[in-house]
């Protein structure tokens, strides 16, 4: 069932209700949980080798020694993502220029998606301002987001969109993504965290999900959890009805 769902989310599902088997089972599962009809953030493996931006992950010691030296010139931005019991949000804090932005992302987005979305929103703000020949530094405390944006292998729609936006910004500017240690007293990072938390508590305008559903969640609230729970229940139903194979026997 997981494989069937993965194929469906990649847009390669060719099943029809009358086909039976996994096709019928997946349709039954979707009837039970309409969230499974929502678009997924997971995409087929895509390669992007040329990156006209840099990714840097300084050590905590470097930040502690001289944090100002790391972002001493040009345009400086901080981004963050947050997930609480109320929802998920993204925050963008511009130091130079002074900007504050927060975005509610609903209840289903993951922290990783929020972190990448925040970077993407920051890039969009820079593109909107029409900067050219600038040094633009975007700081985030998410190493996972930075590694994803540095890797040539992409399997996430939100990462691909952010990569493409960074490519557009990097055509006319020098763009640098920099890791900053979280909750370490770096003012811009702390302010971005506040904005992200604000976004997580704000009401999402529009239908859920705000962005493609992550393929993997914690099991209790996940698509994979829904699939696994449904599969277990169906197996138990079939067992109770006697639809089972005797030990040592195989169907014709």
Automatic annotation (TrEMBL):
Keywords: Endonuclease, Hydrolase, Metal-binding, Nuclease. Residues 71-201 form the RNase H type-1 domain. CDD domains: Rnase_HI_RT_non_LTR. One of its GO terms (molecular function) is nucleic acid binding. It is an enzyme of class 3 (hydrolase). Its EC number is 3.1.26.4. GO terms for biological process: DNA replication, removal of RNA primer. It holds the Pfam family RNase_H. It catalyses: Endonucleolytic cleavage to 5'-phosphomonoester. Belongs to the RNase H family. This is ribonuclease H.
């Amino acid at each position: 069932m997981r494989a069937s769902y993965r194929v469906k989310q990649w847009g390669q599902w060719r099943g029809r209700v009358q086909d039976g088997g996994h096709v019928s089972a997946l349709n039954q599962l979707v009837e039970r949980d309409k969230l499974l009809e929502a678009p997924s953030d997971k995409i087929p493996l895509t390669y992007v080798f040329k990156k006209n931006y840099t990714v840097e992950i300084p050590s905590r010691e470097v930040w502690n020694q001289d944090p100002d030296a790391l972002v001493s010139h040009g345009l400086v931005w901080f981004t963050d993502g947050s997930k609480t019991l109320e929802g998920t949000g993204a925050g963008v804090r511009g130091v130079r220029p002074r900007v504050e932005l927060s975005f509610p992302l609903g209840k289903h987005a993951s922290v990783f998606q929020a972190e990448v979305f925040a970077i993407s929103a920051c890039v969009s703000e820079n593109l909107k301002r029409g900067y050219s020949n600038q040094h633009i530094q975007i700081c985030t405390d998410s190493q996972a987001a930075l590694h994803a944006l540095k890797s040539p292998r992409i399997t996430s729609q939100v990462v691909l969109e952010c990569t493409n936006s960074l490519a557009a910004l990097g055509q006319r500017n020098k763009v640098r993504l920099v890791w900053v240690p979280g909750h370490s007293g770096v003012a811009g990072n702390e302010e971005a965290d506040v904005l992200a938390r604000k976004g997580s508590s704000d009401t999402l305008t529009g239908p859920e999900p705000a962005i493609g559903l992550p393929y993997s969640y914690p099991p209790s609230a996940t698509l994979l959890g829904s699939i696994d729970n449904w599969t277990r229940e169906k197996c138990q139903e079939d067992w109770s009805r006697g639809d089972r194979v005797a030990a040592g026997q195989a169907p014709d």
